[in-house]
Structure formats: structure tokens, C-alpha cells
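Subject line: Sequence and fold of a protein, written as C-alpha cells
Area: Proteins and the way their chains fold up in space.
Start of record: The labelled sequence and C-alpha cell lines come straight after this line.
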Amino acid sequence: MKAFIIPMLLLICGCSFKSDIVNYSGDGKIQDISFTFAKCIPVKGYEIKFTNFDLGTDFYKEYTLNNLPALHKERAIIYLVTGGNYNSILSNSEIEISITDKLDKQVFHFKSMLNKMIKMNVTHLYDSNLDNDFYPKKSAEPYKLKVKYKGKKSLEGKTGYLLIRCGGSI
């Protein structure tokens, strides 16, 4: 009987999370990055990719994050992803990202010059202070993600985008 119950619980948990992914109604494209570790432990996760923007021009955008999938105690990490290894990106370009809840209370804020950020896997940039994450409290809570980017003329035509990743790793 135990051999039947455990796989059924794993299946039910997996199905429940899939519906959370489908129920996301915010901006960006959400993708399920869940996997099974050691053939028996489900590891839930998702990524949300937002629209590309030109790194050579100033950019401001507000995105909505509605019905985020519920991953209790998992932090969501925010990345600026660039399409290549631009040495000139390590300059006076600046990015500011904030997240506010439904009461317009700021739950996350990050501001940095790109030359103070660390390259990760060539295309991902993140701040060395590791303060570029937030913990969504309630899945049904609506959030607003605001990004303000100060472009650099020498990067004109090169693109980047924001990516939120939550869970999906051990």
C-alpha cells in the first residue's frame, strides 16, 4: 500500500504546481523548470522572461506579476540577461529594479551600476551583495515589477531582458 501512496502523492503535488503555472496571469512568459531529483524527489520551479530592451537606450517599464506559483520559503532571483559578453557593459550603465505589493508597499529594491555586478555564465549579471532576490509571500498577491535602466550609446542595438527564477534547483 505504501508503494502506491507515495507515487500518488508525488503525482498530485506535481499536478497542483502545473495548475499554478497555468494560473499565472501577469506579464512575461512563464516556464515550468521543475524536475525530479534522484527519481523520487520533486523540485518545483519556474522562470518568467520579460521583453527584450535595447541596452543602448534608456528604458522604463512596469510589469504585473499576478498569481505567482506558490513555492513556500523559496526566493525569487531577478537577473538581467544580456545576449553576449559585452566588455563595454561594465561601465556607467545603471539599473534599478523594484517590486511593490497590492498596497504599493515596496517589498524589494535593487539599484546598481553594471560595473559593480558580477558576470555569471557570461550572459547573466547579478549583484555581488546577493540582494537581488525577493520572497513572494502569497501566490495570489498581485505585485508590480518596475525596471529603470540607463542605457549607454555604445551598446545601441544590443539587447537584454529581465528574468525571474524561483526554485528549480537544489
Summary: The chain has one domain: 2-167. The mean pLDDT is 74. The first strand starts at residue 29 and ends at 32.
